[in-house]
Design goal:
Layout: H1 4-10, H2 15-28, E1 33-41, E2 47-53, H3 60-63, H4 66-71, H5 73-80, E3 85-87, H6 89-93, H7 98-105, E4 111-119, E5 123-131, H8 139-164, H9 178-188, H10 193-200, H11 204-218, H12 223-232
Antiparallel strand pairs: 1-2, 1-5, 3-4, 4-5
């Protein structure tokens, strides 16, 4: 079973449930505001932004202003990098953008952590959490926050693609054989390939073959990612 917040966001049934799960997880990490943004590139016609957030109403216009986004050093980092950025006032001062920081700090956006997942077919997922008080000075504590947020982002983007994108943009469900699905279900329960083979009455080598075939069909690099994607697509429960 996936830990609380990860499982909750993955199992969200609609946009509002997804938003509640994202906000709750951010607050459990000690952050006041959060934005989860799905971006779809449409070539020459530009990009589509689908945001789920708890931005203060008074800051909504500035938050969604594309002109501000083009200046913002955090957003510019996320456009090019997959490495998380830990930012504060100095991040803006170093680029001569202290005025931009002052504007957002008035609404509680003083420091935070943000990251982007750049996905196939021109899709991207951005997750950022923010707060007014400083981030932990202890390096290990800060690293744990970043790691928790990275793991959550992987689960959240799976749910975001399922819940927020229109049907034509949804990926087709791959066709897995009954044996491949059984192998994934037992893998989800923490069974090794040898144990899966024993349960299904097949050799360990054949069990590995079924798992690898499932991974290939799902476009995943390891069996854990395959289980996660199969859950999201409703192929296993």
């Amino acid at each position: 079973m996936l830990p609380g917040g990860f499982s909750e966001v993955l199992q969200a049934k609609d946009r509002e449930a997804f938003r509640e799960a994202v906000v709750r997880f951010a607050q459990q990490l000690g952050f006041d505001t959060v934005a989860a943004i799905t971006v779809v590139d449409h070539g020459v016609s530009g990009s589509e932004f689908i945001s789920v957030d708890n931005t203060p109403e008074a800051y909504t216009n500035a938050f969604s202003d594309s002109g501000v986004g083009r200046r913002d050093p955090v957003m510019q980092h996320l456009r090019r990098q997959s490495v998380p950025i830990v930012w504060n006032r100095q991040t803006y001062l170093d680029r001569g953008l202290g005025d931009l920081w002052e504007q957002q700090a008035a609404f509680g956006y003083s420091t935070g952590i943000a990251m982007a997942l750049h996905l196939p077919e021109g899709k991207h997922f951005v997750l950022g959490v923010d707060r007014e008080r400083p981030l932990p000075a202890d390096t290990l504590e800060l690293q744990r926050l970043v790691a928790d947020l990275q793991l959550f982002a992987v689960h959240a983007q799976e749910a975001a693609l399922r819940l927020l994108l229109p049907a034509p943009m949804q990926p087709e469900k791959p066709s897995l054989t009954p044996r491949e699905l059984e192998a994934l279900r037992w893998t989800m329960e923490g069974k090794t390939a040898w144990e899966v083979g024993t349960i299904l009455g097949i050799s360990e080598r054949t069990a590995v073959l079924h798992i690898n075939n499932a991974m290939h069909k799902l476009g995943c690099v390891n069996k854990h990612a395959a289980v996660l994607k199969a859950l999201r697509l409703g192929l296993i429960h």
